[in-house]
Recover the amino acids of this structure.
């Protein structure tokens, strides 16, 4: 497995870009998984469902299975949030894992930058950003810059810069 990140400020279009990139990569024969970091509390099951009831009753893990999919919910119950390498180790093998979030992690990342969002670019202060994806020129960039609509070029950059999972074992899992 190889790993590449997508980073940028909220509202820059990271998830929108991934919705375009993933089908393009899959069409190339690349098996893709994603890891998304959330800075807020989230829930994947619904109150009133058996899985939610089991979790609320104190189960550490609840696995739900059907003929279409299965999902495992792990409740931390006060334990420390897992690092990125710990989370990556839980995934089934694929060709490429795309990490959205973990902005301060030491894995290779592409920055999605839009000046209109109003925040400064991240790449000048992050040596792990290997390229910038932007809707406008970024004249002071010290890494390659590619247009936000050039999905094939972005996919090429991802594949060229993704790091092998083994190389990330010492990766800091900062959120």
């Amino acid at each position: 497995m190889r790993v590449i990140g997508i980073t940028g400020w909220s509202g820059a279009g990271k998830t929108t870009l991934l919705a375009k990139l993933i089908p393009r990569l899959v069409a190339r024969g690349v098996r893709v998984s994603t890891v998304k970091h959330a800075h807020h509390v989230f829930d994947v099951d619904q109150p009133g469902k058996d899985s939610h009831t089991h979790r609320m009753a104190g189960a550490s893990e609840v696995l739900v299975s059907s003929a279409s999919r299965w999902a495992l919910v792990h409740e931390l119950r006060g334990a420390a949030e897992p690092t990125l390498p710990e989370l990556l180790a839980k995934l089934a093998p694929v060709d490429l894992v795309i990490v959205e979030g973990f902005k301060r992690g030491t894995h290779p990342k592409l920055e999605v930058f839009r000046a209109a969002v109003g925040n400064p670019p991240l790449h000048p202060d992050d040596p792990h950003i290997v390229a910038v994806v932007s809707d406008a020129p970024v004249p002071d960039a010290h890494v390659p810059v590619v247009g936000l609509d050039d999905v094939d070029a972005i996919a090429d950059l991802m594949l060229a810069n993704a790091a092998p999972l083994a190389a990330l074992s010492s990766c800091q899992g900062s959120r």
User: Anything to note?
Assistant: The chain has one domain: 2-40+80-168.
